[in-house]
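We modelled the chain as a single entity of 193 amino acids. Its sequence is:
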Amino acid sequence: MQTSALPDLAHTATKPVHWLATAAAMAGVVALAGLLQPRTATATATAPEQRTETRQGAPVAAPDPAKVEFPLECGGAGTTVAKQAPGDLDGDGRPETVAVVHCDAGSGTPPSGIYVLTQQSGAAPRVVATLVDPADRKTVGDFAVREGRVSATLLGYSSLEVPRCCPDQEEQASWRWKGNAFVRTSGDLARSV
């Protein structure tokens, strides 16, 4: 082995202060990364859909999902409205509410349902359409109601062997009211994540 004619380099003789400085720098980077995380996904509606009014000019409130019994079998665990957005989906001048709902499982990733709610004057809000049934075993990522259209990113699993924590399929779906029903207008094919 040949010895170097150069003096020992500073980085080859580390001291505890060097390790402390490195640890402090790494902690700063981790803390900064935590502050710069993106916000969680939320449902949104465009301004015209949030300000629906009656013919007399008085604002009409969108149905409140907290007052609805959803068609979910949760075994007594209750339901969670994960996301919601109002919008006049059928063009009648009264807003509907679209709600993403799942069982309150406490942990894990329970499948979601997407429901359309309506409410007549003086009546309780009710579910009028199911766009995604929890029996389809999908969870909902991004979700929005804009210009009379409901759109969502649906996450799913290619087989029962895929862990329920980690969906491996993603599909974009949207629905629009046509005639007397909601019609799925895009996103028929699933793709691997």
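As a brief sanity check on the tokenised model: DSSP finds two helices and ten strands in the chain. Residues 37-52, 188-192 have pLDDT under 50 and may be disordered.
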